Amino acid sequence: MQYCLNINVMENKNLSTKESLEIIQSMIEKSSERYNSNYRFYFLLWGFLLISASVGHFLLLKIEKSEWITYLWLGIVFVGVLFSILKKGSQTKSYLDYYLSYVWKFQMLFFVLSPVVAIQNGMQNPMPIIMLAMGVFCIMTGFFLKNQLQLLGGIGTIFISLITQWISQEVLILYFALSVFLCYVFPFLITNKQNGK
Fold first, then answer.
1. CA–CA dist 22, 34 (Å, integer)
2. Is residue 85 part of a domain?
3. Containing domain of residue 150, as a range?
């Protein structure tokens, strides 16, 4: 994997403050466009997989087959990892791409570890904490890339995580699905329509 900083070096030219800011702004916009196009697949893939798993989880609870829930989630994770590996190509990445890939890797690590910690501490359901973290990570990404839809999705997800104390445990998983839709799917579906993809 190769990381680069895309700056054209100009020989013997001192840049004004305005020119420097324009170059920086241009780099951020290019990284944002590249990020949105490169990672759209991953956000949509994981978004739809997590929504499917959440709805399946809810339905398995309704038909009293809760012993299958673990297999459902493991299967979804396996499919997601498999498609992510198959899609991954060798491409040059900027430092912004490098930074954001670690932000999202830490989120995935949080998704895996938070149920374990919650159960060990006697918490019935870790979904509110997971939704809160997901919202924070989406806000960070949306703010840094100036992606207002992802920023709004993150704010919506934090709001949902805060009202979960008044939501029945039975339907909490469906609110998680809504949070995933707000953070992962909605911003990139709208971006697809705006770009004609």
1. 18
2. yes
3. 38-192
Contact predicate 144/156, CB 8 Å: no
Q: Is residue 19 part of a domain?
A: no
Is residue 10 situated within a structural domain? no
At a CB cut-off of 8 Å and minimum separation 6, what does 190 contact? 149
Residue at 24 is within a domain: no
What total number of domains does the chain contain?
Answer: 1
pLDDT tens string, the chain, 197 residues long: the values are: 444 444 444 455 677 888 877 887 777 676 666 666 667 788 889 899 999 999 999 999 899 888 898 899 899 989 988 987 887 655 656 677 777 778 878 887 888 788 778 777 777 778 888 899 899 989 988 887 778 898 999 999 999 999 987 888 789 999 999 999 999 899 888 765 555 55
Q: Give the integer Cα–Cα distance in Å for 192 and 196.
A: 6
